[in-house]
Design brief:
- The chain is of the alpha/beta class.
- The chain contains four helices and ten strands.
C-alpha cells in the first residue's frame, strides 16, 4: 500500500508527504491493513523520516531497512540489510504475517528488479506536485502488470491493485 500523486511522486523533493493530509480519511482500510503486517521493509531515507517523527509508530512490527550503511541507535525491532534478495529470503522464513514495503523509490526498484513484489497496492491522489521523489525511477526495463482491483474512493482518490504479469 502506497500513495502516489497523479504525476508519479511518492514524496516532495525534501521527502515530505504533507500533500496526503487532506486525503487521510480516504484510507479507511488502514487499521485492517496494518494489523495484518508482520514485517515492514523500508529504504534508508524512509526509515530516517519515520524515526524522526514525534514518536516511533512501529514498535509492534519487525522493521527491515535496506541500506548499505549501519544504523546507529536504532530501536530493537530494526535491522539493516544491504541485499534485497537475502532480506526477502530471511523474512519469508520468519514472518508470520504479511510483508509491507513502505516507500523508498530506490528500494522499490531493487525489489521490483529482483522479482520480489507480489502485489502493488497503489492509491493515486488528485495532486500534481511537478517534482519530487518518483515511485519509479527511469529505467530501460519495461514491466507488465495485471490489474486485479480498482475502486474510486472519496475525494477523487483511486485505489488500484496490480500483480506482476500481463
Amino acid at each position: 500500500m502506497l500513495a502516489v500523486t497523479i504525476d508519479g511522486f511518492i514524496a516532495r523533493e525534501d521527502g515530505s508527504f504533507d500533500f496526503l493530509d487532506p486525503y487521510s480519511e480516504c484510507f479507511t482500510e488502514w487499521d485492517e491493513f496494518i494489523t495484518g503486517i508482520d514485517t515492514i521493509i523500508m529504504g534508508r531515507r524512509t526509515f530516517e523520516q519515520a524515526i524522526a517523527m514525534d514518536r516511533w509508530l512501529y514498535t509492534d512490527k519487525r522493521i527491515r531497512v535496506l541500506t548499505r550503511r549501519p544504523i546507529d541507535g536504532a530501536p530493537d525491532n530494526v535491522d539493516a540489510f544491504s541485499d534485497p534478495q537475502a532480506l526477502v529470503e530471511q523474512i519469508r522464513h520468519t514472518a508470520t504475517g504479511d510483508i509491507w514495503h513502505m516507500g523508498g523509490g530506490r528500494a522499490i526498484e531493487a525489489f521490483e528488479r529482483g522479482g520480489l513484489v507480489d502485489r502493488w497496492e497503489i492509491y493515486t491522489v488528485p495532486v500534481r506536485l511537478g517534482r519530487g521523489i518518483p515511485l519509479f525511477r527511469p529505467s530501460d526495463r519495461a514491466t507488465n502488470l495485471r490489474l486485479i482491483r480498482f475502486n474510486r474512493l472519496d475525494r477523487g482518490v483511486l485505489e488500484a491493485w496490480y500483480e506482476p504479469g500481463a
